[in-house]
Amino acid sequence: MLDLAADPVDLTAALVDVESVSGSEAHLAALVEQALRALPHLSVDRDGDAVVARTRLGRERRVLLAGHLDTVPIADNLPSRREGDRLLGCGTSDMKSGDAVLLHLAATLPDPAYDLTFVLYDNEEVEAARNGLNRLVRDHRDWLDADLAVLLEPTNGQVEAGCQGTMRVRVTVPGRRAHSARGWLGENAIHAAAPVLATLVRYEARDVDIDGCVYREGLNAVAVAGGVAGNVVPDLCTVTVNFRFAPDRSEADAEQHVRDVFDGWAVEVTDSAPGALPGLTAPAARHFVDAVGVTPVAKYGWTDVARFAQLGIPALNFGPGDPNLAHTREESVETALIGTCTDLLRRYLA
Amino acid sequence: MLDLAADPVDLTAALVDVESVSGSEAHLAALVEQALRALPHLSVDRDGDAVVARTRLGRERRVLLAGHLDTVPIADNLPSRREGDRLLGCGTSDMKSGDAVLLHLAATLPDPAYDLTFVLYDNEEVEAARNGLNRLVRDHRDWLDADLAVLLEPTNGQVEAGCQGTMRVRVTVPGRRAHSARGWLGENAIHAAAPVLATLVRYEARDVDIDGCVYREGLNAVAVAGGVAGNVVPDLCTVTVNFRFAPDRSEADAEQHVRDVFDGWAVEVTDSAPGALPGLTAPAARHFVDAVGVTPVAKYGWTDVARFAQLGIPALNFGPGDPNLAHTREESVETALIGTCTDLLRRYLA
């Protein structure tokens, strides 16, 4: 039985020591559900390996705290261990320290200033189609109603607001095959891709300030492929480009921009996810920022805050983990930050 | 039993109708050996599926005629069939029509002006290590002694002299990985390849006149590859380049030239084959050209003439097949050209 009222550092270690690689969160979800059901001020629902606990106090506003239960595969880094001022192990940063803060607050704030919703979900580290939060949006949209969502993803104790969108496009450059001994009879598609790469080199990415958060866009080739055989002038070269765009652009705007940049070439969008505005002007968000006393910065990577933004719910990332250590064999978390985050969130929610 | 004295068009059809995809030439080689051994003016040797037949008349000069017995895989194009003025089927152009001319001359020229060597060999259409002529050079160099070699490869009845060399190099462009959401922390290797491609676009290939044959060089990317994952700035991009070079350059010269062109990038030679000078100033070659009355042109593709050139034997390509139809499902040969080539060679050799 998990002791949610214990020191959040100890609770982090307890969560880390229950393996929960994506797809095998059932045991940890059961432990979390059992511990939450033991709390009389919360009503608890479960869907698959996602657990949602809510207060029903009739407060004017509702704040949702969310964290995923799954981790990337173990890399010889379990069980957890303390080393100086850090706790080491798979999931310490991403994001069982955040889950521990969340669960500790769930247990120890029976009379908060807002109604609270605690969401712990499965399969965040794998493809979007399996994402537990995605499933809740589809099947239990009402469980997620809130005026602000705080994701306890690793941010090193920073408040990271909104997130950038991401879009991948395939730029196709055609040619005409020929034997390379008589190359002048063909048109070399790889040579013809030179101006596509030159366009990427020349591209000047925007810095966009929204609500005081500066989003820095980027346009990068992430793959290039071409070639038929060692003696053939190739008739096709493809360049896959990833556009990370500030949340003042919609996906449609982003697509149009990429098409303008690669005007004259065939451009096909292969996947896309919208950004999320920082939403810092929403009263609940403003109140949160004031309470934690940390200046928000832009989130560059894509996170589940975008799902909340699509539901019209302002969302922030704020957690004790270190994003640079996420998914590494040496994953660890600074134990002091677990306490700091807990205290700052408590000050806001109490 | 093959009838070598028959019309070379009929002999072509007979050879085509014996399947001999590379590696399975044994049956055809046995038929050829049997037919040649029946000719009292020839002494015959066999090594694997290569057959060599020679006159021993004590003439001042010796001329070697060569053809490979193997074909690319059948493509629903056997048995052969006549259609108007063409014979259709796998190997009609490349190069059983040439083999038929060669075998017909072997049977019908008992008293030639030169000593003659007839070479029919295996595995020309596959990797060099399996090439039957390569094996003869290694194990029976003396069987190949000659003052001139004529390969009856498809040339549409043209005389094609010498051949260009070919070299493949891999140009490696490094970078530094980063998450594509924070691309500015890395260095994109694909972007860094832009000047490599621009260099290829700008490259001005030489036209080189040797003995009246114009060799047209070419530098072509034949492959490009790069990319780690859809969200990673890649740290490596490779461009594979094929240099077709005129036979006035040695392989060492060609390599130095490519290194000069891609100065500043890592260049690795992955494979290489030397060219062959046209050798038209050699008396036997000059006599051949005068006799057939066709102005020689440069051979762009690499053929086994280069092996003879390495042995110091001038070599030419001259055959009835159409090189543009070689290796195609629609492979065919113009029947009139089979007769023309036979007559021109007979005029030279008689």
Please characterize this protein's 3D structure:
Two copies of one chain form a homodimer. With 350 residues, chain A is of the alpha+beta class. Chain A is 29% helix and 27% strand. Chain A has ten helices and 19 strands. Chain A has helices at residues 8-16, 26-37, 92-108, 132-139, 189-192, 194-202, 251-261, 283-292, 305-310, 335-349, and strands at residues 43-47, 50-54, 62-68, 81-83, 86-88, 115-121, 148-151, 160-161, 165-174, 178-179, 207-210, 213-216, 218-227, 232-233, 236-245, 266-273, 297-298, 315-317, 332-334. In chain A, the strands form five sheets. The first copy, chain A, has an eight-stranded mixed sheet with strand order 1-2-6-3-7-18-8-17, with helices on both faces. The radius of gyration of chain A is 23 Å and the shape is elongated. The model of chain A has no long low-confidence stretch (mean pLDDT 94). Chain A binds chain B through residues 164, 166, 168, 179-184, 188, 190-191, 193-194, 197-198, 200-201, 216, 218, 220-234, 237, 239-240, 242, 244, 271, 300-302, and chain B through 164, 166, 168, 179-184, 188, 190-191, 193-194, 197-198, 200-201, 216, 218, 220-234, 237, 239-240, 242, 244, 271, 300-302. Strand 13 of chain A pairs antiparallel with strand 13 of chain B, so a sheet runs across the interface.
